[in-house]
Amino acid sequence: MNRRSRAFEPKILALSLAFLMLCALSVVVPGRSSASPKAVGNPQPKTNPGSPADSLKQVEGPKIVDAAVCRRVEERKPIESGDRFPSDVGSLSCFCRVVHGKGTKIVHAWIQDGQTRARVELEVGSNSWRTWSTKRILPSWTGSWEVKIMTPDGVVLDSVAFTIY
């Protein structure tokens, strides 16, 4: 080993140690429970905005970044979305874009006036995934509707309300 290589050894050692410490800090967050803070009965932990625990919550689990009820989906895009549809619409689709959910599942619960008409489980195939479910709508099913987008265990991620008239 020449003299020049030995001069870099302390710097490499210091950088390696700093990197390992940074990795350890990003994994161990004091006061963080293993249960999801959104689960029923578990209050959200108090954190300071910008703290490491706060930044972890932003990427933990699937998030819905776009959701719409529409007449159809073409080329993975919602077509004729809205919040009011005539009773002779025939069928509607609920489109959503999910981030940070690769390998998980989401559920679309189609609810009319408090009664669940359909529950559709959808797999999330990547960390930016567009998916949708389609529901046949009978002409007699007028009233207030909602599609709740949730995890399989019932945590609501988003919802889209609409009316059939």
Task: Describe the protein in words.
This protein is α+β, with helices and mostly antiparallel strands. The chain folds into two domains: 1-32 and 50-60; 63-164, Sandwich (Immunoglobulin-like), CATH 2.60.40.1930. The protein is 20% helix and 43% strand. It has two helices and nine strands; from the N terminus they run ααβββββββββ. The protein has helices at residues 3-27, 52-59; strands spanning 63-74, 77-81, 84-85, 91-99, 105-112, 115-123, 128-136, 143-150, 156-164. A five-stranded mixed sheet has the order 3-9-8-5-6, with no helix packed on it. Strands 2-1-4-7 form a four-stranded antiparallel sheet, with no helix packed on it. The longest helix has 25 residues, at 3-27. Mean pLDDT is 79; it is low at 23-49 and 51-57.
Strand content: 35-45%
Can you tell me the overall shape?
Answer: elongated
What's the arrangement of strands in the largest beta sheet? 3-9-8-5-6
CATH structural fold name of the largest domain = Immunoglobulin-like
CATH architecture of the largest domain, by name, is: Sandwich
Query: Which segments are poorly predicted (pLDDT under 50) over 5 or more consecutive residues?
Result: 23-49, 51-57
Distance between the termini: 82 Å
Question: In percent, how helical is the residue content?
Answer: 10-25%
- Rounded radius of gyration (Å): 23 Å
Please give the CATH class of the largest domain.
Mainly Beta
- Give the assembly state of these chains: single chain
Helix count, DSSP H or I runs of 4 or more residues: 2
**How many β-strands, per DSSP?**
9
Give the biggest sheet.
Answer: 5 strands, mixed
Output the CATH homologous superfamily of the largest domain: Macroglobulin (MG2) domain
Q: Can you give the mean pLDDT? A: 79
Helix and strand sequence: HHEEEEEEEEE
Number of domains: 2
